[in-house]
Amino acid sequence: MLTRTVAGRTFDYSHAVGGRYIGQPCSLAVGSGNTVYVLLRGGENISDVPWNRTGTGSRVARLSIPETAGDEEFIGEAGSYGDGDGEYIWPTGLALDSQENVYITDEWMNRITITDKEGKFICSWGATGTGDGEFDGPAGITVDADDNLYIVDSRNHRVQKTTKDGKFLAKWGSLGSDTGEFDSPWGICVDSEGNVYVADHKNDRVQKFTPDGEYLGTFGSSGTGRGEVTRPTDVVVDSDGDVYICDWANDRVQAYTPDGEFITTFIGDAQQLALWHQMTVDANTDVIKARRRVSTLEPEWRLAMPRAVAFDEAKSRLMVADTQRGRIQIYNKLKDYLEPQFNL
Amino acid sequence: MSENDIALMGHLMRRAGFGATREELEARAAKGYEATVEELLNPEEASVDYLDLQRYHGWTWKPGTVQGMGAAEWMHSLINSKRPLEEKMTLFWHQVFATGVSKVDHYDELNDQIILFREKGMGNYKKLLLAMAQDPAMLYWLDNNENHKDAVNENWGRELLELFSMGVGNYTEVDVRECSRAFTGWTITPKLARFPMGRFDWFFEYRDEDHDDTEKTFLGETGNFDGEDIIDIVCRQPATAEFIARHLYNFFVADEPQVPAWAVTPPNDQDAIELLADTLLESDYDIRATLRVLFNSDFFKNARFARLKSPTEVVVGTLRLVGGAEFPAPGLGDLSRQPCYMGQDLLNPPSVEGWHTGAEWINSGSLMRRVNFTADLVGDTQRPGIQDMIRRLKERGATTPEQLVDGCLDLLGPLEVADESRKELVGFVSESGDVAWDTGENIAAATGRVGELLQLIVSLREYQYA
User: Fold this and answer.
1) Close Cβ partners of A214 (under 8 Å, ≥ 6 residues apart)
2) S-S: A41 plus which of A26, A190, B361, B446, CB 3.0-4.6 Å?
3) Is the ipTM of this complex over 0.85?
4) Residues of B in contact with A304 (CB under 8 A)
5) Residue B462, Cα to own-chain centre: how many angstroms?
6) Chain A residues touching residue B197 (CB < 8 angstroms)
7) pTM summary value
8) Are residues B93 and B235 in the same domain?
9) Do A44 and B54 lie within an 8 Å CB cutoff?
10) With an 8 Å Cβ cutoff, is B54 touching chain A?
């Protein structure tokens, strides 16, 4: 269904954006106005060249995504595959500071790259290792209200807190499955109170901590059923405190109350093609015919290994990076929804 | 543990897997040969974590055709699986049921076929044959989606008999026709187009209204046969058991002539083929039981270095030997292309007949690729596998040219080389005299020279044999 009212909340599917410009989206951040920053992972496609030239498509794209389907626009992009300044081998996480500077993790280069809002390279920092301020696979990244960074140091199984210039402030976590421990964590976010949520990837859960890393609670458990997750990749919390977990290996997003009660599941509802997807179809008569010979188009509606979630507070909407389909699916969280007459 | 135990274990692991490090060989030899065979047949180690690969290489999910890197997912398993025989069997069945992206144009469907080989490859051949008859990539590859009740297409029916079961000379053209009729209506559900948002799965579909349900006479039996009946009849033929036995022998024991010659050229070891074929028939086509007989047989144990390595064996075997490719680092796509540069484009065989094997793997271009690829890897002395060899040479106190050459040959296989080759190697090392393992400077120099020696050894003719 496109609209659902559950546990006092109403979620209404809005539309999808993509089909061009945003292949392999792996992280999202909501900027000012209608701007959405999309980190693109890219992929390998060139052989018999040096290792740092085997891929393409790694970059940051900026889109304008207003409320109405079809109004989206491509603003610009920056970066490319590589190990030089402003280049990325394995870009993984993206976050914005209060000035809308962009922070990008690279989990192969073990560094954080900073650009301005238009993608101009400012600097990068980070070193490989297990010491304070060193990384082995920096993945999720988020910025708190004081413009400090929380960075998931995934293959070191910990979270590090740094200043935005990379000065080490704090760390917590180690490999394990007890509370406060992690196994290959990935995404991260902070809520309006500064609490930190970490997608504890291989432990199939999200853990919540105080800003200092004191354990507060767990969302989700291992599995494919209600409220369960398999290899979560990202998490975001809206201003009501509702928690959305990107349930990657189950091809869905799971929503929970602030207390960890399961609310609902989003599996993707793109019954209408995104603007740029539709343009591709319209340009190819064979594809138009092929779409008419199938019994259903439903597999196209669904999420395929989504890697990231973001919540756009200004527009009260959840955005899901539908990674393998090269698009963003958007759900509005309605504040003033009125049910239609039931027996229509 | 005798030197022969290690040499025999090295032989087993080259054939039933892709080679093994010295540490693994020693551990397996300590357990014993037959126990190792059992462990290979019934592996207890966990499979490679597919989601780990997806995390770092999301592009391997239903990859495009043009880049030619669709075998990256498989390559990751080939290099890292702790279930080596299971993985080797995926390569075996890919060679038998050769299906190619050149026509199918969907690597994801071919990867699904590899997963099927991994799951069923050591089980029952009859069940595997049925699964292949319902495999979307195979159905499309051999046009069975064009095989209709009122317009029979014989492509699948013919290859089933010619290349997947009995072999040429054991059936008539009428049998091909009747066999094909039995598979009418075995097709694929129309699938979503790859545009605009990428690939979607294909599914087998049986269409009753398109199936010819009338009487057929096939290999002397008459009835309203469907595809399953045909597979049952095919598997009752001794020719089928002999054909699969010869494939197993060619892949695991020693090079045979190319498949099209099998109808006119007797096997190199008729007794071995008969033993394997009898085991297949007696066990109702249990591949695991047949492999057990094969690996424990004298004809297998006595066949050291009787096969030319396929390109995949060269690439995967060398990577496993030198180590360092366990984590799916950038460049996995390029690794997956390497067998192609040596003449074996994985997931894209030249035809349904698969690749020609044995000496036909080698030409001047492919040999150069083999030598360059392997020499680059063994010359990288930072690799963990090479570091381990150097540590062992040092512990053994190998300092003279003879000791270094014998030590390296031992640790690379053990590899057996002609006296003339050994003499050349000793001569090369002798040019710079003995090495020493005492000071840091001497160790660095010795390490460099071992790297050069290893490069020379993998350039020898002997390294191309398994």
Assistant:
1) none
2) A26
3) yes
4) 61, 198
5) 20
6) 19, 277, 300, 325-327
7) 0.97
8) yes
9) no
10) yes
On whether both B93 and B136 belong to a single domain, the answer is: yes
Give the type of residue at A337: Y
Q: What is the pLDDT along chain B (466 residues), one digit of tens a residue?
A: 687 899 999 999 999 999 999 999 999 999 999 999 999 999 999 999 999 999 999 999 999 999 999 999 999 999 999 999 999 999 999 999 999 999 999 999 999 999 999 999 999 999 999 999 999 999 999 999 999 999 999 999 999 999 999 999 999 999 999 999 999 999 999 989 999 999 999 999 999 999 999 999 999 999 999 999 999 999 999 999 999 999 999 999 999 999 999 999 999 999 999 999 999 999 999 999 999 999 999 999 999 999 999 999 999 999 999 999 999 999 999 999 999 999 999 999 999 999 999 999 999 999 999 999 999 999 999 999 999 999 999 999 999 999 999 999 999 989 999 999 999 999 999 999 999 999 999 999 999 999 999 999 999 999 999 9
Mutation choice for B interface testing from A20, A40, A47 by most B CBs within 10 A: A47
Look up the domain containing B167 and give its range: 50-301
Q: pLDDT averaged over chain A?
A: 97
Taking CA–CA distances from A278, the nearest residue in chain B reads: B196
CB pair distance less than 8 Å for A44 and B67: yes
Does residue B116 sit in the same domain as residue B229?
yes
For residues A98-130, one letter each, b for 16 or more C-beta atoms within 10 angstroms of the residue's C-beta and e for the rest, the string is eeebbbbbbbbbbbbbbbebebeeeebebeeee
pLDDT digits (tens, 9 = 90+) for B243-284: 999 999 999 999 999 999 999 999 999 999 999 999 999 999
Residue in A closest to B200 by C-alpha: A299
Chain A residues with beta carbon closer than 8 angstroms to that of B346: none
Nearest Cα residue in chain B from A282: B196
Residues 6+ apart with CB under 8 A from B52: B328
- Provide the pairing of β-strand A127-128 with A134-135: parallel
Residues in chain B with CB shorter than 8 Å from the CB of A42 are 59
B198 touches chain A (CB under 8 A): yes
CA distance B315 to chain A (A): 15
| Residue of chain A whose Cα is closest to the Cα of B189 | A294
Question: E strands within A69-187?
Answer: 73-78, 80-81, 87-88, 91-96, 102-106, 111-115, 121-125, 127-128, 134-135, 138-143, 149-153, 158-162, 168-172
Is the domain of B109 the same as that of B234? yes
Q: What is the dihedral of CA A15, A21, A24, A30, to 10 degrees?
A: -60
Please give the tally of structural domains in chain B. Answer: 3
Question: Is B349 domain-assigned?
Answer: no
Q: Are residues B11 and B107 in the same domain?
A: no
Contacts of B195 in chain A (CB under 8 A): 280-281, 284, 287
- B151 touching A, CB under 8 A? no
In this structure, the answer to whether residues B24 and B155 fall within a common structural domain is no
Would an 8 Å CB–CB cutoff place B56 in contact with chain A?
Answer: yes
Locate tokens 């984590």: which residue?
B327
Residue B262 lies in a domain: yes
Shared domain for B290 and B404, answered yes or no, is no
Q: Examine the fold and report which residue of B277, B301, B325 is the final residue of a domain before the chain moves on.
A: B301
Of the residues B268, B301, B334, which one is the last residue of a structural domain? B301
Residue B336 falls within a domain, yes or no?
A: no
B198 vs chain A: nearest CA distance in angstroms?
Answer: 6
**Judgement on whether residues B212 and B161 belong to the same structural domain of the protein:** yes
Interface test mutation site (partner A, options B50, B52, B53, B55, max chain A beta carbons within 10 A): B55
Give the strand pairing for B216-218 and B221-223: antiparallel
Amino acid at B177: R
Contact B159, B142 (CB under 8 A): yes
